Amino acid sequence: MFPGHQDAELLATLYYQGLHERQLIPVPTSVNIDDLIAGRIDIFNAYLSNEPFYLEERGISVSVINPRNYGIDFYSDILFTTQAQERLNPERVARFRAASLKGWRYALTHPEEAIALLRTEYGVNRSQAHMEYELQMSKEMIQPLYVEIGYMNPDRFAHIMQQLVEIGLLAKPVSLTRFLYQVPSEQWIFWRPWFLLSLGVGGLILLLSLYLLMSNKRLNQEVALRKQREQEILQLARLDPLTGLPNRLSLMEQLKHQVQSDNPGCLLFCDLNDFKRINDNFGHSQGDAILCQLARRIHDAIGHQCYFARLAGDEFILLLPGYDIRQAEEVTAVIRQAMQAPFVVNDQPMQVGISIGVSHYQHDWSPEQWLIQADRAMYCDKGGRVITLAEQSG
Predict the structure, then answer these.
(1) Rounded CA gap, 336 and 212, in Å?
(2) CB 235: neighbour CB atoms within 10 A?
(3) Element (DSSP H or E) covering residue 358
(4) CA angle, corner 15, sides to 10 and 17, nearest 5?
(5) What is the distance between the alpha carbons of residues 267 and 265, in angstroms, rounded to a whole number?
(6) Fewer beta carbons within 10 angstroms: which end of the chain, N or C?
(7) Are 129 and 222 part of one and the same domain?
(8) Domain co-membership, 269 together with 338
(9) pLDDT digits (tens), the chain, 394 positions
(10) Are residues 227 and 254 in the same domain?
(11) Is residue 30 in a domain?
(12) Which residues cross the membrane (predicted)?
């Protein structure tokens, strides 16, 4: 691990899963993935944009513990300045920020040129494939189509601070007043020297009024835009970034709501057969393509009659409120029929099987118990030959 609680996001993830820092044996990181491969450590702090490429290139399968999948999503890689620097040199701060954002926008829209620049001008010695992978992963995490580059949510910072207090990395909440840099108006930067020198001139009153009117209009637009982006961020936090389906967090919320209803109905636990072999033989990118096709295929086959979510990996859940076993078996048959056609990846057809476990809700089951029963039924069904019911599988 990095010193000084630099791995706060990882510690928070383990903490909320019941593993406190005092139960760990911290090992100073060597920044060498070979320590994990050789078994010298059990958990390695890695970047999604870096170490997975090395492992995939060497044909090594690992389990990735992504804090985002557990509701932990801290900001990182942040630009900092001092309040004194902002006060004394506001133009310099604004220009530095603008240049940084301009560079990122260019890199995300011109990946080939950005990679070439890094290799020729800055001596980056990584392979072309590695840098393409790193830039693509960065783009998926930045989500530039949904969130403006450089935007930071004050409420999210407050939530991060509260989590740091809960896990003991922060003694108590601190004030975040003026913590986030507010972008000054470029027009105000331009006009300020002239305005201060001409403050006594009555003719500038009209110009100042016009400026204030424009600033107020821009401020109203920014407030509306920020509210829209916050709603988009909240929505993204509950969606699987690969398939666009509801993620585990959304699924568990829906399960808790459904078990409290008068007729929770049935739950289908779906798992692809031999999916690890597909990843091993064809690469994770091909496996991801199959998962996306599967999500669209099942969604198109069943329409909006149920709640369809991705649990993890190649595991998918369908909730059928009010359904009995017979009706659930009919939905299962529709899914199996949809899986008959081969998947196509890079113009290559692949036949992929699916195993489905059916579980009808029983009184006093918790959401977790319901999932476990359906999971057991699914494993009895491995191979996709029959439909297995949780009540029959014990």
Answers:
(1) 63
(2) 11
(3) strand 354-360
(4) 100
(5) 7
(6) C
(7) no
(8) yes
(9) 455 566 787 888 888 888 877 787 777 777 788 888 888 888 888 888 888 888 888 888 878 888 888 888 777 778 889 989 988 998 898 899 889 989 988 988 998 998 888 888 888 888 888 888 888 888 888 887 777 888 788 888 888 888 888 888 888 888 887 788 877 654 454 455 666 777 777 777 888 888 888 888 888 888 777 877 777 676 678 899 999 999 999 999 999 999 999 999 999 999 998 888 888 888 888 899 999 999 999 999 987 778 999 998 899 999 999 999 999 999 999 999 999 989 887 888 888 889 999 999 998 899 999 999 999 998 887 754 443 444 444 4
(10) no
(11) no
(12) 194-213
Report the phi/psi class of residue 170: left, alpha or beta, with left for phi > 0 and alpha for psi in -120 to 50: beta
Q: For residue 393, is it left (φ>0), alpha (ψ between -120 and 50) or beta?
A: alpha
Q: Do the beta carbons of residue 211 and residue 187 sit within 8 Å?
A: yes
Structural domain that includes position 110: 83-151
Q: For residue 106, tell me if it sits in a domain.
A: yes
Q: Which two tokens stand for residue 324?
A: 């009995």
Angle between helices 90-109 and 186-197 (to 10 degrees): 160
Q: Counting runs of H as helices and runs of E as strands, what totals does the chain give?
A: 16, 7
Give how many domains the chain has, as a whole number: 3
